[in-house]
Amino acid sequence: MDHFLYRDGVLQAEDVPLPEIARVVGTPAYVYSAATLLRHYRLFDDALAWGPHLVCYAVKAASNVALLKLLGDAGAGMDVVSEGEYRRARAAGVPGERIVFSGVGKTEGEMRHVLGNGIRQINLESEPEYRLLSRVASEMGVEVPVTVRVNPDVDAKTHEKIATGRKEDKFGIPIARARETYAEVAALPGLRVVGIDVHIGSQLIDLDPFRQAYRKVADLTESLRADGHSIERLDLGGGLGIPYARSNAAPPVPSEYGQVIRDEVGHLGCEIEIEPGRLIAGNAGILLASVTYVKQGEGRDFLILDAAMNDLIRPAMYGAHHDIVPLREPAPGAEPATYDVVGPVCESGDTFAKGRTMAAVGAGDVVAFRSAGAYGAVMSSEYNSRPMVPEVLVDGADWAVIRPRPTYDDMLRRETVPDWL
Ligand code: LLP
User: Any alpha helices (H) in 122-247, and if so which ranges?
Assistant: First the structure.
């Protein structure tokens, strides 16, 4: 459920008519709904209400500081994968004790920064990484709570590029090696083992892979406890998928996911951490774009938009589907049209949809890409020197620009020509 609905024939974000935002901010632009974002966070929080837990929002999904503040003020923790994300979470007022640091290639500089400024836990992913962290923490005279991310060799049955829990993936330590790894980590100075971490992939639309992975984590918890480790926390990662097409069957909801967690690991008495990103932010954001031209091609019509792959790369990168709807609701019974929906960037990969049947629109009309809140703005770039896409936050009848569109002068000012040229 989200808060982008038609009212009197006009698409709204909560109580704000989207044509108003398009007019004032221009297009392309991302628009987020605060109510949707919070609702999704609370669904996860409620799904784990049966025990101690912390929902650590995966900052990578949508990282604007205003969004992080909204979630942080509601009590969310944060899962970060870089110093940049850590700094964003802190700038949003989230205390270090609610931030977990994940990622396969943390640098020494990043370790020093988070150790110096406060961190709830660091999820370790390799031998060289935990040796380095031990040295850094010892030099700084601190002891850092750690988990080891295990790779359970479970196929998440999702897109190839976002599956992370198979043995051929670069993530974590093979679960078969976990006992030796924990013995080594526990013996190192500066590290304090607090739990286990796992994350098997993103956009999972089936609970079964979660169940398999969590069952393995439960078995490992018992073995590690028998080895004398204190396993108090389980970080079970993110990954629950969202419905991208309204016509598709809906994936499982957070309450069902929470029940799987309870079934598989609830008896262990651990504090549960999860790291959802997409399900919190995905349907809380849309991308507005205007139709520049409708061009007749060979046996097809191209809908040429002012948004491009640099603003929303998911279709080009993963073949992802996003529903595209007009801001003016089509009259009942209006004939739909079929288009190849494209951007202006100079490569054929700049295609949002091929042969898409949707409402008929014309030059100057504004459309919305639905479900674009997660991995949308964060993956945008200025390719083709198209200024970075702006972001807008709506809360009830209020709205504000939370990342302005840079001017062309702003863009050029960031670069310098050496004086010897
Ligand atoms: N935790 C870790 C360690 C992760 O690597 C990820 C996502 C998450 C949590 C959050 O997963 P989520 O709940 O959002 O599925 N750019 C891709 C998605 C990449 C996901 C990367 N890791 C896309 O646009 O589909």
Answer: 127-140, 178-187, 208-226
